[in-house]
């Protein structure tokens, strides 16, 4: 039965754009930008197929053509833009509220225009938030209803803070300074601090951007986000050092030129440049964070004491936060090692309780170190969660060097090699471990991945050493009724791959060329073993004969000597 595909692919949609005029082309392109995009990796977590994405696009168009999908192309790049916007706002808002006076605006050219532009962009962001859908975390559904979007934003924590902190403070500097305007400056300076709540949104935007661009290093991303949070808070507290005295004395109180008790009244502070003033406040807040007392800036006013206490408390929380970040980062990077040593600790306790001999305990611990490399992981669970295709690709990659070093595999096709690799089972043998024993029934053959093994005849004569790329145990599998013809013992820690007899018959015994090659190789090995064994027997027979003759001669000599001694005595 023929299949009729109902999915509209992106290429077909792009072809349809060629048949419209410029206005419709721009309109459709804009509409395509705000629809859910199949290229968005975040959207793939909720919509796992092209058909599901297409149905979501239809649902979005059915609700409203003006709503921006949270997994659209526009929203993706707008999130990247928000990182710049929020960083600018979080830096400039407290800086402007605390330090900027008329002379500072004159020192920094076009800063008033820049500040006004940032506020305008903030208002545009407020407007866009009314048209951007959101995802409910509990049900994992995307809300695209404009009324629900507006209700969530207005009654949430961000709307009122965005509005109050986005009032353009720099625009009032174009007016004549009066007492009312100074009070407005004070109110706006306080309102501008509400933008600090967007620090959370900034971190969310950074994480979403990292997911979209497939930045996999979560540890580095976590450290980077934590660094931004820490520096932003320290910057905010540095600005708070000068902001609070300025608000209480200048904006909401009559400045008394005879009462110069505040540290902000010092001559070198009053006449300082913006950069010097900020560095002084940064140094002062850093000292209070660490709990240091500064004789240079004596506290005399109530607001100075309150700011110092507040910064000290926040600083202690920040330091604890930094230590937690470092601890979490170290633990994350060493998770596998920690799990491994937990298992080793349990194993040592078990061996101690069972009174296992020291030599066996040492060998068991050595096996764990060789098997896991001091990083514990559940290989079976990971392997079972993969598809057969992925599992075969991983096995081929792991056995890549083994396949290249074994001449036997060069006669196999890629499909046959994949089939062999699928049946291979890794095993580890410690020094002096017996892998196969002479005279036993053969149930598997082995491929040496790393390490060295020694081959011995039945009588214990060493034949040879086998290293990486060698294989053994095939003789008893090829020749019917043939038992193991040699003993193989590991000289060092050896990693091998085991191929069971039934799997050997499935994937290798059907290939005539391989069977013939292995048969010839097995016959040659068997003959070599017999020759070495026969030679060893002859050597041992001669040695035994010579030893017997020597022993008889010694006995006769002793008898003659004893007879002579007896005769002399008599």
Automatic annotation (TrEMBL):
Domain of life: Eukaryota
An example Gene Ontology CC term for this record: HCN channel complex
UniProt xrefs under Gene3D superfamilies: Helix hairpin bin, Jelly Rolls
Transmembrane stretches, start-end: 77-95, 116-136, 182-207, 219-244, 305-331
Domain spans labelled Cyclic nucleotide-binding: 408-525
Gene Ontology biological process terms, A to Z: regulation of membrane depolarization; sodium ion transmembrane transport
Record's subcellular location: Cell membrane
UniProt KW Hydrolase keyword: no
Family matches, as SUPFAM superfamilies: cAMP-binding domain-like
Protein name: Cyclic nucleotide-binding domain-containing protein
